[in-house]
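A.,

Following up on our hallway conversation. Structure tokens first:
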């Protein structure tokens, strides 16, 4: 009899998970723009992985004889001021943007979520210390904070990652702290405490899983924000150092030729716009699929 009860409970749990996944899939793929965003992201990932095979030329190799060439069959998007193929540099720039975006978002999420979880769960002086530090960081806009840190540290991929990571930490900390303050007062958390469960067990088993849905949505949207911020820093000349291909620096390099060869700026600018748009659309889709308030409406 007991075995049958446990078997029925397991069956019901599996069925519930299947229904949840079915709802998520239906809500996530119900909008054409979300599907478009997913396809674009997969395409960029494919391009980044297979860049050496897709790029028609070496993105670092100058060719002064072919400098400032107009788009042609030899160079589909023309060449820059030192003769480097624009298409090849955009393809390799995909690696730079995705690598920096993913590293910053996940590193910032781990640090920010950890700070927010500790502040929200333990409260008292830890809450005051951590959240006041976060408040100080939030008084400075993310791009400006990253600009200040990058200017102090200098350019380069590692320094840009550090600067942008510091800029995104407050977003995750505030959200995680608010979610923790709400969830830790639920009855099942209080029951765990009364049974003598340790703090790490409560945080890992209950708090973190229940705070993930909104954090996943924010992480997805922050990917677009981070890509845009990195491009902005590179455009200003304190981001990725030449000759490493970076979309922002390519836009800056091409602005002197907007009248004669506008593709030098428009092509990398379009790549930035498309990638940021795709991440935002996926973020919207995840919000619709994970928000319990929208269940039954989609």
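Then the amino acids I'd put at each of the 298 positions:
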């Amino acid at each position: 009899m007991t075995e049958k009860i446990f078997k029925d409970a397991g069956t019901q749990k599996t069925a519930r998970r299947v229904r949840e996944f079915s709802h998520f899939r239906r809500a996530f793929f119900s909008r054409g723009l979300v599907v478009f965003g997913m396809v674009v992201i997969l395409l960029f990932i494919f391009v980044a992985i297979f860049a050496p095979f897709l790029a028609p030329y070496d993105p670092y190799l100058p060719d002064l004889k072919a400098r400032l060439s107009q788009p042609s069959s030899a160079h589909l998007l023309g060449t820059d001021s030192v003769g480097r193929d624009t298409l090849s540099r955009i393809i390799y720039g995909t690696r730079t943007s995705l690598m920096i975006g993913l590293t910053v978002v996940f590193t910032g999420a781990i640090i920010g979520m950890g700070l927010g979880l500790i502040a929200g769960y333990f409260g008292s002086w830890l809450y005051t210390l951590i959240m006041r530090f976060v408040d100080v960081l939030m008084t400075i806009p993310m791009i400006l904070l990253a600009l200040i840190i990058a200017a102090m540290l200098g350019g380069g991929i590692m320094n840009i990652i550090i600067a942008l990571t510091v800029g995104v930490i407050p977003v995750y900390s505030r959200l995680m702290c608010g979610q923790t303050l709400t969830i830790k007062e639920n009855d099942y958390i209080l029951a765990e405490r009364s049974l003598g469960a340790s703090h790490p067990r409560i945080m890992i088993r209950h708090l973190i899983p229940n705070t993930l849905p909104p954090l996943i949505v924010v992480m997805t949207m922050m990917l677009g924000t981070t890509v845009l911020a990195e491009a902005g820093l590179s455009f200003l000349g304190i981001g990725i150092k030449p000759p490493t291909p970076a979309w922002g620096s390519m836009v800056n390099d091409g602005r002197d030729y907007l009248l004669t060869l506008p593709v030098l700026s428009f092509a990398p600018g379009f790549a930035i716009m498309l990638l940021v748009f795709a991440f935002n659309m996926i973020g919207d889709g995840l919000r619709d699929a994970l928000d319990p308030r929208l269940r039954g409406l989609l």
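The CA atoms of residues 257 and 264 lie 8 Å apart. Curious whether your intuition agrees with the design.

B.
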